[in-house]
Protein: Inorganic diphosphatase protein
Amino acid sequence: MMNNSNQQVLTQNFQEPFARKRDHPMFEGIRRSVSMVVTQENASISSLTHSLSSIWEFESKISTADTVSIAGSLISEIDDGSINQNIKAMDPPGTVSPHCAASFYSSSNPSTKMCSSVAMLNEYLRARKHDVTAGVPGMLLFAVIGQEDADIGSVVSTVLYAYFLNETRESRYDCFVPVINMERDDLRIHPELNWLLHSCQIEVSSLVFIDEIDLTYFDVYGSLNLVLVSGHKLPRKQEGLKEALVETINSEDSSICTFVAEQFAETSPEILAGNGICRLLLSGILLDTSNLMGAKCTDKDKYMTTLLIKGAGQFGINGLYQTLKHKKLDMSELKVRDILRKTRVAGKPNSIGSRLSVYRIGMCSIGISVEELLDRSNSAAEDIIHYRETHRLRLLMIASGYYDNEKNFKREVLVSTKTAVLMRKLLHFFETKGIHLPLKSLDLLDTREEVKAFEIDNKLTSRRSIERLLEEFGGAHHLK
Structure:
């Protein structure tokens, strides 16, 4: 049954600010289709028209054993031993098994049949990658770029807004290229993004990452034009190219993916006919709005979610959101250095709300045990020390919070310091100041004094309380 929150979402979907459009006959079909349960199979893309009222009457192939509401509510439960086994098999050690939807999306073939929209997008990406490789001869480069912290919303909006510009501002002298603002090698620390691109059958090899294009070269020769997506100013690493900024795309009243989806809906709705493009945009919206329940979620986000619902697949928006969150926390394939890069939450340059960077203290938060972290490789301790030294940190603390096999919550920390003296000072400080989080030594490392592991007896100790103690320690011992 649909819960009250989902019902409230649906009843608000067609309220303002879209009142001016809701009487248009194109949207009458949308309102009718929202309440439908899709049962048609193998819908042909070629039969779709440019009218949204026709586009959203089709859904991807749905199993006859499971009926799913178009609003994303699971009506029938799956009671299949093989699926239950898949759930256990896909769970990384120490994690709580998610809803069976995650098992469906993580099964042997999470991808749907490639739709014509994704095929055209891949063709566009291949062509632009070829242009960049050739140096964009005889054309102006319009590089569409997002923020440095490239999450799903940033990557999806960057790629699809560049595609939108290519389709609507087509010119033989303009080359619109999406530039993912992270290095290609960093893609491996974003398993949720990897899964999404794979499930939508996007050719990752055709994407252009920031380390694969020299924007400064194009700027020197006067052919660079930057289009910034979701931001008021260029990221720190691109500040020197600010004179090349020609357009800034922001969305103050919705997710940036909602804004991009709206552009397609108003100009080229047929591009949204296939599951792939819908899933990309829908995923960005769901993560940006915390599954439509976050404080920043607006009526526009809820409205656009109903239009993109077919991208959610068999288990609806809740299943898709749950899978993305589960994938985001999945560290089963990551090495120690990747985990530290992925989870660093404090101590980095210009950290907001934290003074740890001033004291050259780093802090990471992980969802696996310290023992499991150290078991990733024979050189795990050396990798941690190398990470601390590479970032010129005096002290690095890795805070672990996880559930053991008996579903008991555990809190552990692993500490690496520059000197043995600093380690002794830290432990003495925690003994006197951290009376609510006594440390119990874990016998997981050798006898070296600069790296130690502890269990925190008080399971209610939060990561933030540990961070505050580190800030106080840094100030008391003048670690600058």
